[in-house]
């Protein structure tokens, strides 16, 4: 029987093979599963540009190295990202001050460090950032400056350093005379030299100063400077140029030159010129002659990385030098002092500065750690806490309940962990730092999650203990006689899936520890090419030596122990070796030669060994550092003997990471410099994930095994979580081709600890939490425009629990149910009572879900499961439910009572007015009923704080308290139910007495005058009522029923 | 041009409860919206020149005047045929921004700018020409608020395609509010007085 069914299955595969082999999806398929951007903004990230509208500087745009463009209209109190759909690496922003709604953005940061990301051209918005269009320079890769002619908005100059990793003709100084329709390259030296900076004479826009810069990076070295570099001046709008840098260097060799022109005196110019003797130069005669001023440390620091100098808008002698720190001079740069640190530490590494032209006291700076604002000319700063442009390199997770933690390291911002969820918003204060420097891998020991491994640049591995705050340096040391250890800038630390607590790390050798780094076992020979020509980082930098470990090469970059076999280890190196050991490191085989179509020595950016099959693995290569921006993604099913390229034209950008899903082997995730991509068919086709997911660099991917969340480390938009990928796992070919399908989701837990609160502090970033509601996901092949869509939930008895209007978009739709029953009918008072919004918790069990689209019904189910981590017993919960039900019923009894009181009162008044009854007996009835009503509900008009509590309000407080807490109510609360019920019964009895005496009297008078009696509404009729009785019938707004 | 009044009856989801809602629009530029809850009725109305509201949910049953920003929004809602219709006569400028992908659906995106400079966007299905989405950014004092409305469940009523469902999303919050209409009636009799702010007791 088994064989037979297997055979049928095989035939089905063959028959359906063609149709089902490829699941072609698009970004819209993932529909409403919006990614959650949890930040943080605690450390923020590298800022590249700050500009503001001159006339109203509260309107400000901030460009970041990897987090796009952020706009504020209130000086920074609230920032919104306005560039999510486009490349997130920002080089420069410019506002057309004549038409401040016109904003230009050059993509591709130009602080040319090892980790800088490329851009894809120049963009322009005509409506203050609402809409953008690409307007040229697509191949520029890096843009450093945009300058707009203040007298003619159509004239714009763009400084393009151009490609960092290769020769290119797409560099130099560009100009448009028609607002970006056409461009001409007006200053060009050669394929190695781009334009580093440009400034314009604010009083004469035809006078321009432009610095040209020769530079190049390779994976193992950087060179700034060469014969192409120089400073040029034009007095005719760029038609002709004179070279004016003779004073800057004795040997004629220059590197990067940054420029500033004094707004108050355009002949007064400053330049920091990189040479073998870098210095600050000052010209008082528009560049004809130059005087050498300060060459103090911060002024001449890292010219390739710190390429900004600024002059005060009103004082030509006051200059600012943002570099490692912010240096300020009041004497034209002869001497400098540092900003105060009284208010606390301001992040080092400054790249951007904006000085308010109307009030030079106000200064904003952009650093490797976000934006700071000063109101005293840059002396003391306040941190802007709401820019989540943090640049993670890696991400790992732990297994903490109820919410796991996320761990990762960041560019120049150390190592951190924070919660994936909090129920009160994930705020900066929820994040904790475990280590300093540049951070990369941060790994929580899954044998003891309080032990955290972290590192700073160049393999300085540390161990932090959350319980004790102990930090210990545990970097592997060279053995006697061993070569110098070469650790990558971004050294891999990897934890075994099979043996939690087994940790690997790599230099040129692979190491393993099973005792928290006290002992490292070297388990490999040198796994790299050990090419001595690529190990000269001490000579790196060009004119200014810059050996920060960023160019360390011939190192191990990625490690993966197979989740299917702990003895099977994969290692990838930055110089293109792909090594496998099948015996825990005793012997190694380099399989990279088997990979077809791969350039030699391409950087192995990630290896992901399959948990489903030990012979299967996925690898990404990243060759961008050789100027090759292609996406290289491969799969092997025979331990590296043969490889299949699985990248398609759907993928964009060089690849950082691949990860196979841990449940569905055909579901693959790839992170590139331009976003996150998914494949549902094992790599035959791919689609970008764009649901609240910016086009940012995705550097690492993790999947939580229990929660089924996909967690992304982005280099510029912090941590992004896609909650519960179960529905995506179930997007089979069959589902995708169906008109509509209800998709499974992870179990919905009830009765767990709920609550958690915290102030949402003003000015802080607040990362959203995952919903605690039950999720119902369904797939629609096309948008539903002409039929209704609703989701109905029924209990096992077939009773309708909830009807939810459905969304109708193409792809996955999501509606949520708060897992509460209908709220009670609440007595009418002067204002609504909170109880009318709160229904009792639904019971555990399986519910039927009906997706109704027009006249079609699709069925599914929904499980509410008792939270396994709930501290409350079934007994406690039963008491809670019983109490909630009792109070629910009391609310409805009271509502029934008050409805009748209001009805009788109104009809009696009518009878008085019509002269059908005596005023005295009518008013007696009305007054007596009103006395009761006043004990039942609050009746005083006024604000919320009348403090008036009557029976409804007292019951409401108790009812909502009981409903909100999943466990047993307090004894005091339980006793209170009885007390309130006594009051309720008394009111009911009092009303009955009045009906018996006074209403009877009124009714007999009505009968005497031949009118109909006043009848009480029956309970049956009341129960049939909608939540709200229709009132105000005279307005014409309702049917005349 | 035959339609003089429209009455929408339905409900809006909010805070765990479905709140009954009625909305009446009368040519020219009159609107009244009512939401009822626990026997209290909230009213928002605009009579062609003034906007006002009664908000018993905050414990006050007296009508109050709306701010000019709120009034502006009511005025937009009071346009019975929608602002795109005869936009020039109404003083708007419209720009076809081209095709746009709206959650996987091919649409035309239109930018509509008022005389005061307020901008709205409209996404119209490229095949059915039905309005699928409207997005408006409004400055309230010092705050920019963007609201998006998605329209669906179109039904032909008295010769006009009406969306029976509307999903309202604020850019700053997850989730959305959903309005479902159970009945849409046209050319019912409505007295002008219901749009006018009642005299207060004092």
Structure description:
The complex is a heterodimer of chains A (1041) and B (202). With 1041 residues, chain A is of the alpha+beta class. In chain A, the strands form 17 sheets. In chain A, strands 14, 15, 16, 17, 18 and 44 form a 6-stranded mixed sheet that branches. In chain A, strands 61-68-67-64-65 form a 5-stranded mixed sheet, with no helix packed on it. In chain A, strands 1-59-58-57 form a 4-stranded antiparallel sheet, with no helix packed on it. In chain A, a hairpin with a 7-residue loop joins strand 6 (90-95) and strand 7. In chain A, helix 5 (874-913) packs antiparallel against helix 6 and helix 5 packs parallel to helix 8. The longest helix of chain A is centred in the C-terminal third of the chain and has 40 residues, at 874-913. By secondary structure, chain B is mainly beta. In chain B, strands 6-5-4-3-2-1-13-12-11-10-9-8-7 form a 13-stranded antiparallel sheet, with helices on one face. Chain B has one helix at 68-77, and strands spanning 5-14, 17-26, 30-37, 40-46, 51-54, 64-65, 93-102, 105-113, 119-125, 131-140, 143-157, 160-170, 177-186. In chain B, a hairpin with a 4-residue loop joins strand 4 (40-46) and strand 5. At the A-B interface, loops of A face strand 1, strand 2, strand 3, strand 11 and strand 12 of B.
Topology readout:
The complex is a heterodimer of chains A (1041) and B (202).
Chain A: H1 2-20, E1 36-39, E2 47-52, E3 60-64, E4 69-72, E5 80-81, E6 90-95, E7 103-107, E8 122-125, E9 133-134, E10 145-148, E11 156-160, E12 172-176, E13 184-187, E14 193-200, E15 208-218, E16 221-224, E17 230-234, E18 242-243, E19 257-262, E20 265-273, E21 279-283, E22 291-292, H2 297-300, E23 310-311, E24 319-322, E25 326-329, E26 337-338, E27 350-355, E28 363-367, E29 370-374, E30 382-383, E31 396-397, E32 405-410, E33 414-419, E34 426-427, E35 432-435, E36 443-444, E37 451-456, E38 460-465, E39 471-473, E40 493-495, E41 503-506, E42 510-513, E43 521-522, E44 541-542, E45 556-561, E46 569-573, E47 578-581, E48 589-590, E49 603-609, E50 617-622, E51 632-636, E52 644-645, E53 655-660, E54 668-672, E55 675-679, E56 687-688, E57 698-703, E58 710-714, E59 719-722, H3 726-729, H4 733-737, E60 740-743, E61 748-750, E62 766-767, E63 774-780, E64 789-794, E65 800-805, E66 811-817, E67 845-853, E68 856-866, H5 874-913, H6 919-936, H7 951-964, H8 971-1008, H9 1019-1024
Chain B: E1 5-14, E2 17-26, E3 30-37, E4 40-46, E5 51-54, E6 64-65, H1 68-77, E7 93-102, E8 105-113, E9 119-125, E10 131-140, E11 143-157, E12 160-170, E13 177-186
Antiparallel strand pairs in B: 1-2, 1-13, 2-3, 3-4, 4-5, 5-6, 7-8, 8-9, 9-10, 10-11, 11-12, 12-13
